Amino acid sequence: MKTIYFIRHGILEGKYQNYSKLNSQEFKSLLLKEIEPNIDEKETEKVLHQLSFIRKCRKIFCSTQKRSIQTAQIISKLCNNIQFTQIDLMNEVEFDESILSQEEAEKGLDFIRMIILSRWFEGKNKETFQDSIERFNKFLKIAKETKEEEIVVVTHGWFMRIIQLSAKGKELNKISFEELLEEKAPPFLDVVKIQIEPQ
């Protein structure tokens, strides 16, 4: 069996560590990838250093976004400078302007979260929930074909909800909105482990 450790990217710098501290424009800019905050390298390395499986990994994938790449660089350093591979299949969900109105963005995080998840799930977004499932499955196919048995993958919070559901044994194409809504965003550097049969 191959073991894949999916990790949410490192702890972000400053106010981006806590989304509740962002104003509505800052939150929406982050959601739409108009801003790319850096990770706090010192705090991120401190947490990664405590994860015993990190040193066993022989293959590292990360998304093509800055905070994921920065996290992969630290993991690489902890793994004797193993090269990492950037792959857009692990990027954060691609949200468009219509995902959240300015008025909605002024409301609390719980309301905002419900609106974003519902529009993603119902296909009212540039990248639909089904699109996200398809790229997750494409990635699993690539992972199956790699020769390494222990794989670390750095990805993002909204997208990790799909990974969390898969790790619970859910059939992704049969997920209900209620099940998706129950999945909370993982904290920075949270790990979801999935085992798959090799190709």
Describe what this molecule looks like in 3D.
It is a single chain. The protein has helices spanning 24-31, 41-49, 66-78, 102-105, 109-121, 129-145, 157-167, 177-182, and strands at residues 2-8, 59-62, 84-86, 150-155, 191-196. It has 199 residues and is an alpha/beta fold. The chain has a single domain (2-196), classed as Phosphoglycerate mutase-like (Rossmann fold, 3-Layer(aba) Sandwich), CATH 3.40.50.1240. It has a 5-stranded mixed sheet with strand order 3-2-4-1-5, with helices on both faces. The N and C termini lie close together (10 Å). The model has no long low-confidence stretch (mean pLDDT 95).
Task: Furnish the topology, listing elements before pairings.
Elements: E1 2-8, H1 24-31, H2 41-49, E2 59-62, H3 66-78, E3 84-86, H4 102-105, H5 109-121, H6 129-145, E4 150-155, H7 157-167, H8 177-182, E5 191-196
Parallel strand pairs: 1-4, 2-3, 2-4
Antiparallel strand pairs: 1-5
How many angstroms separate the termini?
A: 10 Å
- CATH architectural grouping: 3-Layer(aba) Sandwich
What fold name stands as the CATH topology?
A: Rossmann fold
Helical residues, percent: 40-55%
The CATH homologous superfamily: Phosphoglycerate mutase-like
Please give the number of β-strands: 5
Number of helices: 8
Our Rg estimate from Cα atoms comes to 17 Å
User: What's the arrangement of strands in the largest beta sheet?
Assistant: 3-2-4-1-5
Shape: globular
Detail the poorly predicted runs. Answer: none
Query: What series of H and E elements makes up the topology?
Result: EHHEHEHHHEHHE
Q: Provide the structure class.
A: alpha/beta
Strand content: 5-15%
